[in-house]
Amino acid sequence: MNGDDEKYSRKDCLVANTQSSRLADQTARVVFLICAILIVAIIIGIFLFVGINGLRVFGEDPHARNMFTSTNWDPDGANGDPSYGALGFILGSVVTTVLSVIIATPLAWGMALFMTEVTPRWLENILRPLLEIFTGMPSVVIGFLALIVLVPFIKKVVGPHTPNPATSGVGWAAATIVLVVMILPTIISLSIDAIRTVPGSVREASLALGSTRWQMMKNAVIPAATTGLATAVVLGMARAIGEALAVSMVLQGTTLPSKILTPLVFFQPNVNITQAIVFYFPEASGPSRDAYFMLGFILLAISFLFICVSRYLASRSVYK
Amino acid sequence: MSTQISQPALQRESEQRVASLERLVRRLHLNNGIAISVLWILMIIVSLFFLAIIVQLLVQGFPYLINPAFYGADGEGAVGPQLFNTLYMLILSEIILLPISLAAAIYLVEYARQGPLVTAIHFAAETLAGVPSIVLGLFGALVFGSYFHFGISRLAGALTLLCLNLPLVLRIFEDALTAVPRDLREGSLALGSTKWHMVRSVVLPSALPGIVTGIVLSAGKIIAEAAALIFTMGANNPSDVFTLNPFIGSDTLTIRIWFVQTVGSGTVPAPAANAVAAGASALLIVILLVINFSARAIGRLIQRRVTAA
Fold first, then answer.
1. How many structural domains are present in chain B?
2. Which residues of A, range 94-133, sit inside 8 Å of B by Cβ?
3. B128 and B159, same domain (yes or no)
4. B77 and B51 inside one domain
5. Closest residue of B to A242, CA-based?
6. Is the CB of residue B206 less than 8 Å from the CB of residue B306?
7. Fewer Cβ atoms within 10 A, N terminus or C terminus of chain B?
8. What is the CA radius of gyration of chain A?
9. CATH number, domain at B98?
10. What is the signed CA dihedral for B157, B237, B281, A132, rounded to 10 degrees?
11. pLDDT digits (tens, 9 = 90+) for A54-95
12. For the purposes of burial, counting CB atoms within 10 Å of the CB of B93, is it exposed (0-12), middle (13-18) or buried (19 or more)?
């Protein structure tokens, strides 16, 4: 009699236990799902909010139609009618990004090849932490260092040839070098990942056919890693075009220099997209605030394009 | 049959062949030597450049780092409030970031079936990782600042940092969870535990080293970030900065460096501005170095404990 009771209560207890743990399981599942969907919500939110606010400027102020045809940026209308010509900003971003990627890419690929194929183990143990520290380096620190070391140097060397020696030194040249330092670690580590994914059998096959080490790299490893290497460069470009604070510290311009078809343009105060947003957004209001959202949306669109390109390249790669 | 060909001619021909092969080998080895030395030189230039930057930053900031007044609460050259804010933001952002990204990673690895939802989440994460931090700052100012009415505050800054770090941490956590062997999971499920119980008691402890890596990497990113915070957290401190109130605006070490060198250069005399920036840069580097190396040590420790147990 007594034993029967005990058996029943234990069974009840077990059932209750199972039910409560099932409930916990279901709850956990829903919570996890919400967190996972949050990331989709965030990215959709970014495109919607920045996009809607940015595109609103075209409705609010008909002057904004010159955004992609003029270089005169004056959304508050300080000199007569407001003008929204962002071409100078876009030119600045494109020039600095392209130049920095052109400089950084060969360095990064060489470094990545060295670190995967040539380096002795003891050296790798030194280079790897160095690279990791630089990947996480605060951009303002690089910007500050460029400001007190690089800019005076440029000013001393090229300054006397520029129209206004007092303000020279800052500009696209300094910004490009800052960007090189910023994106080099990124491209190196992504390229290393790309080269690492090439299986050892490819290397062994090449060496077994009698190649030298360089032939093996040139004819077997690099072709096999091409898409990965290209992805690394594209992601480096995405980082370069979005880099804001360090670049704003060494650009310091308000408009494009008057003569942009001389080499000296690289050493005069200049502009790009991120710098304009950083300096003027906090004080902006009304249509001009929306104009800065539009600049942000241009940046967003460009980096989204880069991400799509990198995804496309990654989908074509043989080794993953 | 081929005895018609004279012996000397044959010999000459084979000598020529050997000579040309030797030339080829010599050329290939020369090319190899050139290429490898170019790579060595490249490596030396790049790493010396990197080392020079770090040494230069540490050397020019060293006089401030050993000066106690540098860590004081007020004065033009002191960064006490900024240091406090940096650590505060680090903790606040991690408190928000870790549960959410861990939950999302658990869903993706343990619960979700391969399908459009998982693809969409991965695509979203990849896209979010590529969004420039300045655009995230605009987004944060608009959504967390205006629509959620947090204004310019630490909370808005921390939520913006969540958007910034979520993709990175999610990917590291996912890798950490995926690396847990299948047998462990199956063993646990076979003993009758629910999925959530299995995740809690089996998967998470085994994935701990990877989780620590994620925490450390995101910590470095939070400390180094500034562009996303300028519009959401501002660049100025209220008078009572040493509080835990998340609804006040404040700055961090990185924002301070940027502020005194650009828009705020009129508010601080130039020597003091350079002193603050030099000292704060060196301080940031020291913090990042400490985080980096302690992360390695902790990771190794946990690895040993987990594999030994």
1. 2
2. 107, 110-111, 113-115, 118-119, 126-127, 129-133
3. yes
4. no
5. B132
6. yes
7. N
8. 27
9. 1.10.3720.10
10. -10
11. 888 888 888 778 888 888 888 877 777 788 888 888 999 999
12. buried
Residue in A40, A137, A213 nearest the CB of B224: A137
Q: Which domain holds residue A52?
A: 2-60
Q: B163 vs A46: CB contact, 8 Å cut-off?
A: yes
**Amino acid identity at B61:** G
C-beta of residue B282 within 8 angstroms of C-beta of residue B58? yes
At position B149, the amino acid (one-letter code) is H
Task: Single out the residue in B17, B44, B65 at which a domain terminates.
Answer: B65
* Prediction ipTM score: 0.87
Q: Are A86 and A73 in contact (CB under 8 A)?
A: yes
Residue-range definition of the domain harbouring residue B169 = 69-308
Which residue's entry shows tokens 């900065």? B241
Nearest CA distance, A37 vs chain B (angstrom):
7
Same domain, A132 and A272: yes
Read off the CATH number of the domain in which A204 is found. Answer: 1.10.3720.10
> Which residues in chain B have Cβ-Cβ distances shorter than 8 Å to A40?
120-121, 124
Residue-level pLDDT, tens digit, chain B, 309 residues: 555 667 888 888 899 999 999 999 999 999 999 999 999 999 999 999 999 999 999 999 888 888 888 887 777 778 888 888 899 999 999 999 999 999 999 999 988 888 888 999 999 999 999 899 999 999 999 998 888 888 888 899 999 999 999 999 999 999 999 988 888 888 888 888 888 888 888 888 888 888 888 888 889 899 998 888 888 888 887 777 788 888 888 888 898 888 888 887 777 888 888 888 899 999 999 999 888 888 888 877 877 776 665
> Of A23, A44, A60, which residue sits at a domain end?
A60
pLDDT of residue B105: 93
First CA to last CA distance, chain B: 78
B290 and B221, same structural domain?
A: yes
Same domain assignment for residues A136 and A257: yes
Is the model's pTM score more than 0.90?
A: no
- How many domains, in total, are found in chain A? 2
Among residues B34, B50, B65, the one where a domain terminates is B65
How many CB pairs (< 8 A) connect A and B?
A: 248
Q: With an 8 Å Cβ cutoff, is A49 touching chain B?
A: yes
Max Cα–Cα distance, chain A, nearest Å: 107
